[in-house]
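agent: user wants the full assembly modeled, not chains individually. Plan: 1) parse entity lines 2) check alphabet per entity 3) run joint structure prediction 4) return tokens. Steps 1-2 passed, three entities, 959 residues total. Proceeding.
--- entities ---
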Amino acid sequence: MASTTTHDTATARAAARREKARRAPAKWLLAPAVIFLLVWMIVPLAMTGYYSFRNYNLMMPSITGWAGWTNYKILWSDPTFWSALGITLLIVMICLAVTVGLGLALALLFHRNFVGRGVARTLAVAPFFVMPVVTGLIWKNMLFHPAYGLLAWLFRTLGLEPIDWLAQFPLTSIVTMISWEWTPFAMLVLLTGLQSLPEDQLEAVRLDGANKWHEFRHIVIPHLGQVLYVVVMLESIFFLTSFAEIYTTTSGGPGTATTNLPYYIFQGTFVQYDIGVSSAAAIGAVILANIFAIFLIRFVAGNLNAGEAR
Amino acid sequence: MAVVALKNVGKQYPGAAGLAVEDFNLTTHDGEFIVLVGPSGCGKTTTMRMIAGLEEHTQGTIEIGGRDVTGVVPKDRDIAMVFQSYALYPHMSVRDNMAFSLKLKKYARADIKQRVEEAAEVLGITPLLDRKPRALSGGQRQRVALGRAIVRQPQVFLMDEPLSNLDAKLRVDMRAEIIKLHRKLGVTTFYVTHDQTEAMTMGQRIAVMKDGVVQQIDSPNNLYQQPANVFVGGFIGTPAMNFLDAAVENGTATGSGFSLVLDAARRDAAGTRERLHVGIRPEHLHLAGNEADGQSLRGEVEVVEPLGALTMIQVRVGDTKVTAQIEPHQQVAMGDAVALTCAADKLYLFDADSEDTLMGIDSGVADQPAA
Amino acid sequence: MSAQAKRFSGANIAFGVLGWAVALLMFLPLIWLVVTAFKTEAEAFTVTPQLFFEPTLESFKAALAQGGGYWHYAWNSVFTAVASTLIGLVLTVPAAYAMAFYPSKRTDFTLVWMVSTKFIPAVGVLVPIFLVYKTIGLLDNVWGLIALYTAMNLPIMIWMVYSYFRDIPKDLVEAANIDGASMGQTMRKVILPLATPGLASTGLLALILAWNESFWSITMTNHAASTLPVYIASFKSAEGMFWAKMSAASVLSIAPIIVLGWFAQRQMVRGLTFGAVK
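--- prediction returned ---
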């Protein structure tokens, strides 16, 4: 009996080895992408971490060496950093609320059957494809401009005092521009979600005597749950790193009213040339992004397992 | 054409506690049609996939045409497979689907054309050759899937529930078609199904599996007449065999609502057992007249199903529901109290604990005795 | 009721009016941009918006003229967007193929890791990349930019292609295996033809994201490798001097991508939902 057992485990081990050999090419197929991401994302990230503990200012090349927590201490006591952090969060939160809210309303609207719906929807999604730099300039010059902008003209026509939007309501203006770009995205994704809603589910609740609100609350919203997650995840990624809209319009101002973390780090690097402190701030931005990621990537993992059960 | 031999074949998935397939032994005859049947999760598909080489077996050896194929990749095993989903390449025409494997083997173009057209002729799909799979009906796709397999003239055909996506009538037609095809080509075939009717009508030998273990391998008739255990008895035959828990005393098996006299052979088989399972097929039960003979099952009729040619009734005998097949002219209504009877030589006896048959199996063709 | 009749019911007319109003409102800034592009500089820069004017191609000519700048940046944009998309696909397809059809215990982890790299903000790696590029001479170099765009889009591309691959029945791969196809043949002859629409929309999304990207272009290039966003951004302090020219240049920069986007919008969104929408 003992000999059969050893024979069996030997066969099993051989089988496992063959199984591994069969998968080996798969590993090589995966390697280039993984290596690429390692080299361009993970290695630089580690270097950022390293620099954040170094004295490193291109303006003061004589001062080098280990800085310990100095850069972080400088950051900690810099009110601009904290305001940048707050502004980053404000932009993300408000833009998420606006784009998801409006996007859902628009998706429901474009889910109705009306004349020229396809064309209307196509017009409405266009802002999503506009490059952010252009968005910034359109809004800054042709809509928000206190003298020559369309909004100024509209206010004057209505007998009101024109507003210098970017100066008086800078953050609102930035949020408006970003939301203009991203509402179509939320709308498109949610619309796709709505269209995949099985008709029989709706018929079932209607037979159960549900009214429109119940239908929306208990069938449509749960069905959109996963899709909403996708919207929030992708939008968070982009909102956290908003840059072009600020760069082309307010340049972070007035004062630091629209300086978010990306812009703060950009200035620290290319205006103040302080590599050490900028790196420390960058680590802060990474941590912030990862707080979002922890919540959102759960969805991805969950989706994986749902797929596995398929 | 080849003999396929599975010797002590087993499969353990990494991380899984038990074996998905355990100690499978079977040597086919050349050109034999073997059906693997069992409920879902019984390991029949895993067994077939191990023969195909889509999964590695972790124990034992598999030989095809006398060659140990352990570690040989599917394409070098000289097998063809028909998938449950057909797995036709949606972007290729029927012709290209069938020619794909030949093209990969670098056959001459004229050769490919001839082989594809011959196979199409055999299956009656010549007019469909230039269509895409999505333009075909389910039955046509099925034929194309068969065509893709036969065009290669492999040593072994593997068919994984090939008919389960067809509607009932088409399934019966295709069943006959596959049998005809097998007879014509004479290629050793493994056929997986969960449908015992399909197994019975198609298989020259049938391997009944449960929980990764082969229960019995035998011809359809022997499976039906000499089931190796309660599971096989219940699985083969529709409606299923009735089982009654009985106490044996003085050569009579009794229980709540029934009393059955055992003949000499069955008395020997029962030996000194005090308890056993009695199996009775529905077609062996008859309505008893008023005259009482030794065999009787009494109870109340719960369901009457007239099927035209015959009528099925369900009778509650004690705690057990017993199905009986009666003549359609026999008038029975729900709620009637009836007595059923069964010839003594039609009773099956199984051990109360192991559930194995007590009757012995005398066919001798089984490669493997009941597990 | 026929679909046509349904469209003209009272409620749907109301929704139609609302839908069109919203659509036009969203589109208005772009209409105004296009209108301005056809004006002279004087007409563009007025307190009362000029609706009636003689359309002129003057501004487009100015933008496209030698030294107007557009072509230099446009070429860089086309080159970086197309090259980064192609390189991205070359890296994506094998990786997604391996994970979709040869999953291992580590596959889930690898995928989640890849998506999580998308959560590393560009500023998180800006400083080291800038310094390394400066050292090895990749600053203001199109290939430096291409590599960054590839890395930026790779996680999303792999995810999209992976979810397209997952929709392809595994049976087809096994059938190809049995038919005698090697891994490479299976990928080329069975999987890629089936995934073409998915690959196309993934490629289009990568193209759009690369085309519109401005952070890396602004920070890593000076002139030689600068893309259109840098050109457009150079108008940011123009203060009414060149509004018409800016508008014309903007129209030229966004029009191709909007048209592409319009064609691909539905496919793209489906892929982006990572399989949440079937």
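agent: reporting back. Chain A has 13 helices and no strands. Residues 1-6 of chain A have pLDDT under 50 and may be disordered.
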